[in-house]
């Protein structure tokens, strides 16, 4: 895929916060193409949400950033505040895990949907309402919700509103931060079906953060696996989950309880992810990795062919439950 | 629907529980039994009445009608609030809550919290030794005793919550979405820990969850709740392999997997909602 | 924490207590006033009740650094010693209303039902009754002295604390850690005393700090009216009263200084209390 068709292009992104011993994000490389769904998976605290927020220029105060984050070819990190506002209003938008926390409970949903259009002067009130109706139909809601308040709707319906609102200005890039985690499994299916549909109709590129590997495998074209602020493996969803090459990816898959598997002990990953307050040397996964060797503790593995592991070439990762890996 | 297989005297027997909030039938004629040392899963979407059932069982809520009996003793009747009665009820059933960030007093160090419980229930035993034993049992070092909840990770806090429940030495442990807030790698550690504890102590689990993978992994039998009522029950293996009720099938189809078609699941869901007997719609936002 | 907000008077609502400089200044001032009150007898240059008629209504001089009042009493000494009475009254009021208010509020919030209704209604009733009037009534009934107005104003301030404690209890009750203690078999009393009250205490104490300022103002008003503080005891409020004539005669210092002290102390307590409450609220998030 050529650079021109990337709606999001993150290059060597590094982000440090005060009072931490290692970078929160450490050399993240990631791309999202037009009408592509890319999943970003990893445990909580690994830096998924931070990566997502940087794409909108939403940096924590006192953050020291390096590298580049280009949305539609333009570097977000060097944008003026005015340009950033335009970006958030038009080119890229975001949906969050908890729609109820992201929507003002005291305003009608119609106000919420057309708010940014009215403030940013974009389409003008009339056209905004027309677009809102159109999008509501696209997300499977009726106009009736325009005059309703958030508390009158269920979580799943509110998440649709969030999605409609994110699409109001026809963004090329949609950033989704665990958009279905707070929802029921059956509702999750609806929202995912909706997102896939919208990708097809509007050609939106999506970066989809989740900790659910099964979901990532089922919906995305490509997957990036993040650990301790670094991308440890990436590749097409099918091959990445079918034949993981990084020990962390394999371990994550093995620790996920699966429907099809016989009920037996899970292969849990020992220990915990590294703390931000402790410096890291060598491979961040070394302390928990079953394949770690001397070199892993001393030398940081650089990404090569989509895997950052010293032993990627030699390891044939023993798969605990070969048959039931998700295949996309 | 066949009754769950059960020995002569189950450790937990729930019969005919009902609870309404206004027009919402939160729990609608729920009955099941749990045998000693077994693990029973309760699955269903949020708002299906799982949490309310759990809260009635542990005594945080009163049922409108119905009974909960542990080892043959009814615990719904008694409204006496004497100390002995309180302690006896606590030793029947303990509970682990969903959010380990909220279920521990933020001001109390782990060791103190455990000692508090031990002093209440076993004033004559050696508290310090038992605290160490409990911490060890849930895979925490003795150093954890001095830590405040905020100094621990989510998984560690959930271990503390489990240790605190075990301190009472209950016959039944109710776990309400106890691993839902944890990352998969930590979740696997806790699920393994729970399996070990059951093996060692013969405690019974009532395992409430919406994650069918988890159900598969830690329960022997399962009941499926939908709109406050049980719509299917049976051995976990059978229910997951050959679901009989359309709602159970929908739940199974909703799990993302190879060849998954979310569009079809969404259509099935709408179909099920429209064919089902109209019941007062319950807003699904009141998450527990 | 949104349900529970501190009660404060409208005029002070607009002070931005989040600013650190202001908070630190106010904290330092509060600390200073307290220390001065504690060691006042050793600080005061003269006997506060010694009348030096020759110095009456003179401008500041080496003998009387802040001048003297109409009876020739040293203003500086009276201010220093006056801080004791001026702080002691509000201290009693705050201590009394906090303890009682927490008991009432927590009981109402925890038990609910008719107990809640009864307690909430009666504190609303108290709230409707002006505190100063109540205090004047008590003084009229029980005579002079600090005790009667302190008891009356404690009752008047009780609803502010109990209302806050009740709403904090209601929101804290929702938290699973309290449910966990109930499931463990702890009694309601021990849960409240050992877990609930310590967890809501920071906000309640912040409210009490704010109340301290207002109580000081009310006590000063009473002693200005000649009620409450026994005659001869130096007190800021009664100093203003005594200074009225001096004011008319163009020597305002003995009346203006206690005024300024009262206002600044009240504002300082307010700012400190609000800042604490803010800090707790931010930590909760
Ligand atoms: N205290 C309450 N007041 C009003 N409605 C409630 C209350 N508790 C539960 N409900 C309602 O009862 C139903 C069942 O809820 P719950 O037991 O929490 O289900 P689950 O645990 O399966 O998500 C829901 O519709 C919920 O809104
Ligand atoms: S580099 Fe070493 S420690 Fe890191 S994942 Fe590879 S084998 Fe494991
Ligand atoms: Mg629940």
UniProtKB/TrEMBL annotation, chain C:
<feature type="transmembrane region" description="Helical">
    <location>
        <begin position="212"/>
        <end position="233"/>
    </location>
</feature>
<feature type="domain" description="ABC transmembrane type-1">
    <location>
        <begin position="87"/>
        <end position="273"/>
    </location>
</feature>
<dbReference type="Pfam" id="PF12911">
    <property type="entry name" value="OppC_N"/>
</dbReference>
<dbReference type="InterPro" id="IPR035906">
    <property type="entry name" value="MetI-like_sf"/>
</dbReference>
<feature type="transmembrane region" description="Helical">
    <location>
        <begin position="122"/>
        <end position="140"/>
    </location>
</feature>
<dbReference type="InterPro" id="IPR000515">
    <property type="entry name" value="MetI-like"/>
</dbReference>
<keyword id="KW-0813">Transport</keyword>
<comment type="similarity">
    <text>Belongs to the binding-protein-dependent transport system permease family.</text>
</comment>
<feature type="transmembrane region" description="Helical">
    <location>
        <begin position="21"/>
        <end position="44"/>
    </location>
</feature>
<keyword id="KW-1003">Cell membrane</keyword>
<feature type="transmembrane region" description="Helical">
    <location>
        <begin position="87"/>
        <end position="110"/>
    </location>
</feature>
<dbReference type="Pfam" id="PF00528">
    <property type="entry name" value="BPD_transp_1"/>
</dbReference>
<dbReference type="InterPro" id="IPR025966">
    <property type="entry name" value="OppC_N"/>
</dbReference>
<feature type="transmembrane region" description="Helical">
    <location>
        <begin position="146"/>
        <end position="165"/>
    </location>
</feature>
<keyword id="KW-1133">Transmembrane helix</keyword>
<keyword id="KW-0472">Membrane</keyword>
<keyword id="KW-0812">Transmembrane</keyword>
<protein>
    <submittedName>
        <fullName>ABC transporter permease</fullName>
    </submittedName>
</protein>
<dbReference type="InterPro" id="IPR050366">
    <property type="entry name" value="BP-dependent_transpt_permease"/>
</dbReference>
<feature type="transmembrane region" description="Helical">
    <location>
        <begin position="253"/>
        <end position="273"/>
    </location>
</feature>
């Amino acid at each position: 895929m050529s650079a021109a068709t990337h709606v999001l292009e993150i290059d060597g992104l590094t982000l440090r916060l005060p009072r931490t011993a290692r970078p929160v994000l450490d050399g993240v490389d990631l791309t999202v193409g037009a009408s592509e769904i890319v999943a970003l998976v990893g445990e909580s605290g690994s830096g998924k949400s931070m990566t997502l927020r940087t794409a909108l220029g939403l940096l924590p105060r006192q953050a020291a950033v390096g590298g580049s984050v280009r949305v539609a070819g333009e570097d977000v990190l060097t944008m003026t505040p005015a340009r950033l506002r335009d970006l958030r209003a038009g080119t890229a938008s975001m949906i969050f895990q908890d729609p109820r926390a992201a929507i003002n409970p005291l305003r009608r949903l119609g106000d919420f949907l057309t708010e940014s259009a009215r403030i940013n002067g974009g389409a003008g009130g009339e056209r905004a309402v027309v677009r809102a109706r159109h999008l509501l139909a696209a997300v499977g809601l009726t106009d009736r919700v325009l005059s309703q308040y958030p508390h009158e709707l269920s979580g799943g319906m509110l998440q649709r509103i969030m999605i409609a609102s994110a699409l109001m200005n026809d963004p090329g890039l949609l950033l989704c931060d665990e958009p279905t985690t707070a929802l029921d499994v059956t509702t999750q299916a609806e929202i995912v079906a909706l997102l896939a549909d919208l990708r097809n109709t509007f050609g939106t590129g999506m970066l989809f953060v989740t900790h659910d590997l099964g979901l990532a495998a089922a919906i995305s074209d490509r997957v990036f696996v993040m650990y301790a602020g670094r991308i440890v493996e990436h590749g097409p969803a099918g091959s990445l989950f079918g034949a993981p090459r990084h020990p962390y990816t394999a371990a994550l898959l093995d620790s996920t309880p699966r429907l099809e598997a016989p009920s037996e002990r899970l292969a849990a990953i020992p220990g915990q992810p590294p703390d931000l307050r402790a410096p890291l040397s060598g491979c961040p996964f070394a302390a928990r990795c079953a394949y770690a060797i001397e070199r892993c503790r001393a030398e940081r593995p650089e990404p090569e062919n989509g895997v950052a592991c010293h032993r990627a070439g030699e390891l044939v990762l023993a798969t605990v439950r070969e048959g039931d890996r998700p295949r996309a | 629907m066949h009754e769950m297989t059960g020995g002569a005297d189950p450790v937990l027997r729930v019969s005919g529980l009902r609870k309404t909030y206004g027009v919402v039938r939160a729990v609608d004629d729920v009955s099941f039994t749990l045998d000693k040392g077994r693990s029973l899963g309760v699955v269903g979407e949020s708002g299906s009445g799982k949490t309310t059932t759990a809260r009635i069982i542990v005594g945080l809520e009163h049922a409108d009608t119905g009974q909960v009996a542990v080892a043959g003793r009814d615990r719904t009747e008694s409204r006496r609030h004497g100390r002995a009665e309180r302690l006896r009820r606590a030793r029947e059933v303990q509970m682990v809550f969903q959010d380990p960030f909220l279920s521990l007093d933020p001001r109390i160090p782990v060791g103190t919290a455990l000692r508090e419980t031990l002093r209440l229930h076993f004033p004559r035993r050696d508290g310090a030794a038992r605290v160490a034993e409990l911490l060890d049992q849930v895979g925490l070092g003795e150093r954890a005793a001095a830590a405040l909840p905020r100094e621990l990770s989510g998984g560690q806090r959930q271990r503390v919550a489990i240790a605190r429940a075990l301190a009472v030495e209950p016959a039944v442990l109710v776990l309400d979405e106890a691993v839902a807030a944890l990352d998969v790698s930590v979740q696997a550690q806790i699920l393994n820990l729970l399996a070990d504890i059951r093996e060692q102590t013969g405690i019974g689990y009532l395992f409430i969850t919406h994650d069918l993978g988890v159900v598969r992994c830690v329960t022997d039998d399962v009941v499926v709740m939908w709109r406050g009522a049980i719509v299917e029950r049976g051995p976990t293996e059978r229910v997951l392999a050959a679901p009989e009720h359309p709602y159970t099938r929908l739940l199974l189809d909703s799990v993302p997997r190879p060849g998954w078609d979310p569009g079809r699941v969404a259509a099935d869901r709408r179909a099920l909602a429209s064919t089902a007997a109209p019941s007062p719609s319950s807003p699904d936002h009141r998450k527990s | 924490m949104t349900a529970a907000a501190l009660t404060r008077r409208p005029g002070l609502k607009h002070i931005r207590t989040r600013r650190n400089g202001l908070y630190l200044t106010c904290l330092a001032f509060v600390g200073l006033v307290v220390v001065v009150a504690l060691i006042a007898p050793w600080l005061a240059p003269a006997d506060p009740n010694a009348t030096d008629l020759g110095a009456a209504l003179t401008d500041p001089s080496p003998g009387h650094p802040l001048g003297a009042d109409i009876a020739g009493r040293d203003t500086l000494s009276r201010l220093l010693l006056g801080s004791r009475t001026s702080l002691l009254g509000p201290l009693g009021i705050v201590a009394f209303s906090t303890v009682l208010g927490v008991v009432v509020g927590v009981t109402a919030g925890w038990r609910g039902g008719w107990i809640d209704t009864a307690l909430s209604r009666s504190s609303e009733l108290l709230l409707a009754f002006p505190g100063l009037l109540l205090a004047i009534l008590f003084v009229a009934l029980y005579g002079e002295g600090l005790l009667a107005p302190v008891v009356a104003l404690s009752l008047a301030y009780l609803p502010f604390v109990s209302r806050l404690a009740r709403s904090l209890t209601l929101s804290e009750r929702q938290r699973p850690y309290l449910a966990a203690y109930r499931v463990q078999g702890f009694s309601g009393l021990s849960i409240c005393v050992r877990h609930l009250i310590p967890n809501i205490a920071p906000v309640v104490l912040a409210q009490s700090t704010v109340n301290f300022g207002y109580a000081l103002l009310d006590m000063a008003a009473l002693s200005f009216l000649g009620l409450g503080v026994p005659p001869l005891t130096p007190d800021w409020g009664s100093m203003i009263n005594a200074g009225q004539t001096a004011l008319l005669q163009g020597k305002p210092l003995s009346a203006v200084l206690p005024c300024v002290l009262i206002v600044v102390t009240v504002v300082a307590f307010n700012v400190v209390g609000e800042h604490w409450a803010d800090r707790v609220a931010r930590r909760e998030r």
